[in-house]
Amino acid sequence: MIKRTLLVLFPVFLSILLLSFSEKDKPVQKATIKTLIVDPGHGGFDPGARGLTSNEADVSLEVALKFGRALKEEFPELNVVYTRTTDIGAGGKKTKKEDLYYRANLANESSGDLFISIHCNSSGKRAGGWYERVVTGKTPIKKTVGKGKKRRTVNSYKYTYGTVYRENTAHGTETYIWALSKNDAKVNSVNKMEYYGEIDSSGTMGIQLPDPSDPAEKARMLIYAQHFFRKSLNLADLVEKEFEASGRLSRGVKQRNDEGIWVLQATGMPSILVEIGFITNKEEEEYLNSDKGQKEIVEDLMNAFRVYKQKVESKTISTMP
Ligand SMILES: [Zn+2]
């Protein structure tokens, strides 16, 4: 767990470092979104959550490709980079760790201005529903207890049991951003020796790491992380509002730190992870697989992106210290 956290840090710091150098000589710069990374979750060896008739990897890919096409149609100048376009682990990788690492690296190497990951949610229980043994009735009875002189009659109940089908009712959308509280921890953890060890063992890093013992550098890294966080939160909020306007149940903008959210922390750019619905809910799975549902989801994402892009590009963003 700790190694994964440490591994996450490198691309963020690298981009932060590169940004801070390349922008040093430009006091004010007009922000533009040139490259958008579209990340369909899971794939290949990892089907993700399972529904009754489909899996998360396939649905996420279909929606992500449609979203990418809609983006290119409306913004032909936009560079859309997919982390995968077929049913494979990203980059053809065979383990979860390599797959996620590839996604984050691709995003960073492509100089993405925004990272949008598409996933389907699951409630943790069986898709569709499950059978459960329950009490169906209770009849009062007289029961004899004790022995000898202590023998007496008490009131009790006779229970009858049956099996009922419980529908898997969890549904709705959620959009994730990384946990801000982790920013400082991320900066501090660079001091640890394991960090360097982990980077070396990956065999891909021959680059000078930022020096977090330099207070100015540490502050700069933190400010950039917070800057990305604000933008991510803004977009996540727009996405959930669009879902709500389409009549979906919005479960809101959330934060969590688990494997699925790893890419959000590893990408040196604003990043969100959209759970477009519960694949474990029979009705919602049908919606997620339908042309109508996918079209609506893509429209919602487009509406949110359009507003976000306009907001970001209408402002001049001053250089970070
Ligand atoms: Zn997922």
Walk me through the structure:
With 321 residues, this protein is α/β, with parallel strands linked by helices. The protein folds into two domains: 271 residues, 3-Layer(aba) Sandwich (Aminopeptidase); 33 residues, no CATH class. 44% of the residues lie in helices and 24% in strands. It has nine helices and ten strands. It has a six-stranded mixed beta sheet. Helix 2 links the parallel strand 2 and strand 3. The two termini are 32 Å apart. The structure holds zinc ion. Zinc ion binds next to loops. Zinc ion (ZN) binds next to loops.
Structural class, judged by helices and strands?
alpha/beta
Largest sheet: 6 strands, mixed
What separation lies between the terminal Cα atoms?
32 Å
Identify low-pLDDT runs. 1-10, 20-27, 184-209, 316-321
Q: Any idea of the CATH topology of the largest domain?
A: Aminopeptidase
Give the overall pLDDT as a whole number. 82
What tags apply to this protein structure?
binds zinc ion; two-stranded antiparallel sheet; 6-stranded mixed β-sheet; disordered C terminus; about 325 residues; alpha/beta; Aminopeptidase; disordered N terminus; 2 domains
Give the structure's gist in a few sentences.
It is built from nine helices and ten strands. The protein has 321 residues and is of the alpha/beta class.
Layout of SSEs?
Elements: H1 2-22, E1 28-30, E2 35-40, H2 56-74, E3 79-82, H3 96-109, E4 114-121, E5 129-145, E6 152-167, E7 173-177, H4 182-189, H5 193-202, H6 215-245, E8 250-255, H7 262-266, E9 271-278, H8 282-289, H9 291-314, E10 316-318
Parallel strand pairs: 2-3, 2-4, 4-9, 7-8
Antiparallel strand pairs: 1-10, 5-6, 7-9
Helix pairs in contact: 1-3, 1-5, 1-6, 2-9, 6-9, 8-9
The structure holds zinc ion (ZN).
